[in-house]
Specification:
The chain is mainly alpha-helical. The chain is elongated and about 70 Å long. About 70% of the residues lie in helices and about 0% in strands.
């Protein structure tokens, strides 16, 4: 089964971005603060001007890169995004390093270069940025820009997963279920799929359904299989709808009722 990973067009959402900005170590600021305040108010024209008035600040440089990358307040321009990300990344700013790595992985504004993507992802990953750790894990899993190395992939996925990254949690489930670089361990696969499924990852929900239906690492449990297939089907996994229909034929009315009750309780907890 292929890994679930961030699409190469993905970049951090505005809300997540603001949380990450606030979580990173403070840097002395001038007009950057005014720019950040304007950005938070979606006043991108003012934000752009203020960031340009403080062009040596690594966060100003990052935001200018991000605005060119995402087309906020200016036309999308990947070459300019690269320029500003590079300036910020060279000052050690993790978010800029991550996004610069993404540009190299995407091949936008430059030739696609996974080796350089790996370099910048690693710089950000070693500073603890979970998004970079997740991307670095994918590069090692697929052997892009580096030699394929499941153990390295698992190490980086683990770092991101422990910080709550749901994609890395799913990927760890894939690794353990299939014994990729590790001894096959259905219990570990169930654990990581469970964490990802609770965060709404449909493929994790589907895989849990399969494991409960087949009794992989757990006794066969059609009630739980039905619940997970139902959740995955609701998010567009067509095979989940098919499998739910199949197991319904061998379930009692009481079991189906119990599964629906569990589903309702699960939704209340999330």
């Amino acid at each position: 089964m292929p890994l679930m990973r961030f699409d190469v067009r993905y970049f951090i959402t505005t809300l997540t971005l603001l949380v990450l900005i606030l979580a990173l170590p403070p840097i002395s600021a001038g007009d950057y603060v005014k720019g950040f305040e304007a950005y938070c108010e979606n006043d991108y024209k003012t934000a752009f001007k203020e960031f340009m008035d403080d062009p040596d600040h690594p966060k100003s440089q990052f935001f200018l890169g991000f605005m060119y990358h995402s087309g906020r307040g200016v036309a999308v321009n990947y070459s300019m995004a690269k320029k500003w990300y590079s300036l910020s990344a060279s000052q050690g700013y993790a978010l800029a390093q991550y996004h610069l790595g993404s540009l190299y992985a995407e091949g936008k504004g430059m030739h696609q270069d996974y080796a350089k993507a790996e370099y910048w992802y690693r710089e950000a990953a070693e500073k603890g940025l979970k998004e970079a750790q997740a991307k670095l894990g994918v590069l090692f899993f697929e052997g892009r820009g580096v030699l394929k190395d499941y153990q390295q992939a698992m190490n980086w996925f683990l770092k991101a997963a422990e910080k709550g990254d749901r994609t890395s949690q799913f990927n760890l489930g894939i690794i353990y279920e299939n014994g990729l670089g590790v001894t096959q361990d259905y219990s570990e696969a169930l654990y990581w799929y469970g964490l990802a499924a609770d965060q709404g990852v449909p493929k994790a929900q589907y895989n849990l359904g399969v494991m409960y239906a087949k009794g992989h690492g757990v006794p066969v449990d059609y009630v739980l299989a039905y619940m997970w297939f139902n959740l995955a089907a609701a998010q567009g996994i067509s095979d989940a709808a098919i499998n739910r229909k199949l197991i319904t034929k061998i379930m009692t009315k009481e079991e189906i009722s119990e599964a629906q009750k569990l589903l309702s309780e699960w939704k209340k907890q999330i």
